[in-house]
Amino acid sequence: MKFNIFRAPDGVEGGAPAGPPVIAAPPVVHSSGPVGPTKIAARDVSVFYNGKQALYDVSLDIPDKTVTALIGPSGCGKSTFLRTMNRMNDTIPGAKVIGRIEIDGEDINAKAVDPVLLRARVGMVFQKPNPFPKTIFENVAYGPRIHGLATSKSELESVVEASLKRAGLWEEVADRLHSPGTGLSGGQQQRLVIARAIAVEPEVILMDEPCSALDPIATAKIEELIDELRERYCIVIVTHSMAQAARVSQRTSFFHLGRLIETGDTEDIFTNPRERRTLDYITGRFG
Amino acid sequence: MNQHTVKAYGDELNQLTAEVARMGGLAEAQVADAVDSVARRDVALARAVVDRDTKLDAMHRDIERKAIRLIALRQPVASDLRRALASMKLAVDLERTGDLAKNIAKRGLILAEGEPMPPLTRSIERMGKLVSMRLRDVLDAYAAAEIDGAIAVWSTDDEVDEHYNALFRELLTYMMGDPRTITAGTHLLFMAKNLERIGDHATNIAETIYYEITGQEFTGERPRWNPDPTLEPTDDTDPTPDPTKPA
Fold this sequence. Notes:
A: alpha/beta; Rossmann fold; four-stranded antiparallel β-sheet; 10 helices; B: mainly alpha; Methane Monooxygenase Hydroxylase, Chain G, domain 1; 7 helices
């Protein structure tokens, strides 16, 4: 019996096109269900590092109260794109961002926007937990204090408690709020950092590989936390773990070589992606 | 399609597909041989069909075990996941097909002890050829990941039903005419029913192939044989005509 060893959806209606990828093609956007209203709208966003282009004309609507996962191989531009959403690229010498990014219809790159205030609205969690070398309490209280979100000591205490509770850490640290944050385990530190981010009442939380330094149990706790936070915030997560993207997100965007290739409902992306490059990536065929 | 970065993963998927194709080849041969043994009153061939069925059962278990292992260890997604699941579904259809072929062969052994009934066994042979052909076509479509072939088989299931209906009437006429043929006629009737069921498994296989390749369910309306064209088609998948009603 003659045998076709690569059973690809080539030539099938709705399947991926055969042949070399058309680099300049617009991204495939699809959705099978309703998503929240758009929180962040990126239009033709390109990023250059010292004149070298790292991100090409990315346009993407990110819905509110939804977890959006950005996936793609290393160097695909997903972290670069994430960092444009709270102007973290401003801090990198030689970085230039063009295009427009709006949060609730407001251009975040406008002159009138204070990046410090922007970063309070758009919190960020990094790959390695980075608590301040202060107590657990002070880590969380720092933001509300400098942004004047609490007028009294008792108010500050209640903000700290609420944030730690929302980050699922309160029960583990309630009796040692004044010990150093750096003495916690990696997973606890990451939840402490999340508590610190949500203490300033952000609208958006950006996460750049928040679990890659954690063990599976700590990872599961963070993922459970992300699922709970989704009810209140717009969450964008960059992850190298496709299983994690599949578990925590409702929308997934696939980046490759600095371009947005495909974006859609996570379920669709992981069951029946429309783009060949997406399929190759999620099934482990890249190369 | 590109190769998997982890080569062993791709090899395992290909091996799974190859084993299903191999199992399909055996099931196809079982059906053809069973029908042949009835037509030629070949007792040795009928016994061989009965004995070979355990091989199909073993292949079914093996494919299931390999697919489960692959899902557990490789966590396939998208087209790879559909491929693993399709192999399990196809193995079930092929195993049932083998059981039905075995049943035909067993009835053939009983028929071989009585008087030959050439016109009736010829009708069974014709229907058997049609069903074997459909099984072969759908398995070819699977091996070649050929969606048109699968759709072609899917959309012509009514041919089998028509054959079955014609055989049903033919057998009824015989049995009414000569009650001594009732035992043999009943066995032949069950054989026809088994062949009709095998045809349904071929249709199932076509649907599974469609899903495996496209990721979509096949949603077309399947043509169904209608015992009385003046009646609305029913959802009843059993094409057995009602003998109390005039044809």
